[in-house]
Model the fold of this input.
Amino acid sequence: MRIIIRNLVFLHYSLIIKIILFSLFSFSILKIYDIGLDIEKEISQLNSGTKSLNWSNIKKGFEILAIKYKYLIKREKIIPDNSPIWVMWYQGIRNAPPIVKLCINSIIINKGKHHVNIIDKFNLDRYIKLPYYIIEKFKNGTFSITHLSDIVRMALLYKYGGIWIDSTIFVTNPLKTINSTFYSLKKKTCFKHPYIKCKWVIYILGTTKHSFISTYGYSAFLFYLKKYNSFIAYFLLDYIIHIGYTTISQFKNIIDKLPYDNCNIWLAKFLNYDYNNDYFRCSFNKLTYKSNFIFYNGTKQTNYGYLIEKYNISV
Done:
């Protein structure tokens, strides 16, 4: 009889302990994933107050953010044909190099039903209000204009949706209807990088406002820059998208369903070649303003010379 009573008491306390442990576990999960809680506070605790650039901790924070916002995927709609196009040249289009003016002109010509918004340092505040700590870190030289543009593109896509096109993308054909909630160029072969894998490019990104990728991506930058004072990697935005891709199966499925575009878009390396219209068969072409280009090879006009003349770009 004593043995039976002892066993019952043991089972009773064991059950109480299990209930307490389960409650604590459930509460911790809710604390992390409840969309109404302060996610930055939760994430900051993961790093135990350290300010060092620990990738495992940063990755964990990004994963938590991706999980937090995955519910938005169910609400997403197809990117409309009249969604805004976003292009940025921070110094102002009047001060842009000829290549940038050429590319922006080509985007405007081929915009279709979209409206093109050209963002610069003079009008940025009209569209978005970046947090004070981001503006201060940029002014103090913590990160470059290149990384500022990464933050701005995610902020704009979060608030308005639309299509971000880098200011060095030359467009040759009118933009087509996008039958997806997310858009980018996807290739079978591209620049090799462990986190990119040719499934997207950050210089062309399309989505709707308050979508999963725009909300998660912008929040990831806010979390990161509130805590750290330098970029851990040049391709940080690619890393952020990659973590969303590997963490959220629904987002992975969306990207995996995008059609491949295997057109060679690196037009920049052919600009000093003799003019040939075959070089302009791709809808999107990557150029650069950091190289020197010529108008003629002897008496033959180059591809660069042809484009500058056709689009009436002052040099």
Observations:
- The chain has two domains: 2-53, 71-256.
- The first strand starts at residue 85 and ends at 88.
